[in-house]
Sequence to fold (256 residues):
Amino acid sequence: MSMLRVESGPVTVVTLDRPPANALTRELFAELTALLARLEAAPDVRALVLTGTGRFFSAGLDLFEVFAYPPDGFTEFTARFDAGFAALFAFPKPVVAAVNGHAVAGGAVLAAGADVRLMATGEGRVGLTEILVGVPFPAAILEIVRSACAGPHLAELLYFGRTYLPDDARERRLVDEVVPAGELLTKARAVAAELAERDGAVFAAIKASLRGDALRRVRAHAPGKDPVWDVWRSEHTRAAVEAYRQRTLAKKTRPA
Fold:
């Protein structure tokens, strides 16, 4: 069953649709990578809008599924993870993220991979919480975040693992603009359409120049071969993720 809904057109809208939180798995990464390849090759597709459903843009990795993969399955996941984020970051056509709600950890990185990031007003929060979970950043996401969020708040984002409401997220360059929730998708389509009017080859060349150094660092290792993945496989990391799982479950079962 597809986890990505696609509304085709010159501005193609791709909606993450994996309730309840649009969490990321190896199957979703494989679907995203294949879809981006098709959209890149389609001459009638001029730009892309990426959004989510419900209260979430994406809650990031489905850690409980990911860390339940057997060794071979986990290796497959790491390769799909690296390939999916690299494909989004290198996508030569304009990409606008319409952040409709919470965008946490890998979800925030998905937004960071876009060229323009719009966020809806409301209670949605954005942040890079990996350090709270106990997992280090693979190069594929560290370079995306470094490119999108460069500036005085970058260390804060990575070291503290905080999440931010829309205006604070904009101040820290996690998003570019905050718009009324009811206008989010309309605004995202309009921005994507404006970018689609530019010469496609020129846009792609500028984007490749802007992101070239970061992409070279991402591609310094074949997908799944970043040494950071060995840290993810360690008993220490798995224990940290299990502790995070227990804390999460305790919050869900705590009386209101």
In short: The mean pLDDT is 95. The longest strand covers residues 11-16.
